Amino acid sequence: MEPTRWWPHSAGRGLVLVAVLALVAASGWWLVSRPRGVAVTVRHSTAVPVPSPAPTTSMSTDGFGGSPTPTPTPSAVPTARVVIDVEGRVRRPGVVRLSAGSRVFDALRAAGGVRPGTSTRRLNLARVLVDGEQLWVGPNPPVQAGPPAASSGGSGTAAGPVNLNTATLDQLDTLPGIGPVLAQRIIDWRVANGGFASVDQLRDVSGIGDATFADLQSLVTV
Fold first, then answer.
1. Which one, of 58, 85, 86, 82, lies nearest residue 72 by Cα?
2. Is residue 108 within 8 Å of residue 86, measured between CB atoms?
3. What is the pLDDT of residue 109?
4. Which of 14, 15, 32, 89 could cross-link to 138 by cystine, CB 3.0-4.6 Å?
5. Average pLDDT, consecutive stretches of 10 residues, N- to C-terminus, the chain (222 residues)
6. SS3 assignment for the chain
7. Topology of 162-221 in CATH?
8. How far is Cα 194 from Cα 191, in angstroms, rounded to an integer?
9. pLDDT the model gives residue 118
10. Measured torsion, CA atoms of residues 175, 164, 191, 178, in degrees rounded to the nearest 10
């Protein structure tokens, strides 16, 4: 008697093979269809513009509980000025107002410049102006309160005493040992100190030594 075989015959084996292949295919599909995490790299191609902060305005209340109002910007401090009287041979004689620290050539420019044929040789164009002074341009300055400064025999000395408080630059220039530069120093000292109280104060002017003062003592007055 032959033993019973448990292995199915060919038709059964075919069904088992199909079932196995179907199971394998289902497993593969399930593995493929599973969701997977994907790493994403973000690259910024352009920079995002950052808006600049709006300008701030300082605010202040009106003092009565009202709404705040913008605080005005303080105005600039006014520039110091000097007032100069420009007379003589200039195009527009009269008073001019200039910034402090201005010089003689600035005053001449403000007065329209000198007239044609006028020499400025006796003027120190680089001198700093003093507030309240009078600048005379030309060869014939007006006589103020002292005697006229006329030449005597071409010696360069004045005919009479020259008043240190009223003499012009040209009048002082006629004194012995006094040129345009030293004459201007006398005028500058006079303006800065409110005038000469005595002839002896002439020694306080820079450039006038004992010898020069001895020559001038009898030729000037106050």
1. 58
2. yes
3. 95
4. 89
5. 52 71 73 57 53 55 52 60 91 93 94 89 88 83 47 43 87 85 89 86 87 84 86
6. CCCCCCCCCHHHHHHHHHHHHHHHHHHHHHHHHCCCCCCCCCCCCCCCCCCCCCCCCCEECCCCCCCCEECCCCCCCCCCEEEEEEEECECCCEEEEEECCCEHHHHHHHCCCECCCCCCCCCCCCCECCCCCEEEECCCCCCCCCCCCCECCCCCCECCCEECCCCCHHHHHCCCCCCHHHHHHHHHHHHHHCCCCCHHHHHHCCCCCHHHHHHHCCCEEC
7. DNA polymerase; domain 1 (1.10.150)
8. 5
9. 86
10. 10
Q: Tokens 């620290």 map to which residue?
A: 101
Q: Which residues neighbour 197 within 8 Å (Cβ) at sequence distance 6 or greater?
A: 222
User: Which pLDDT value is given to residue 20?
Assistant: 74
Give the pair of three-digit tokens for residue 160: 């009479």
pLDDT at site 119: 85
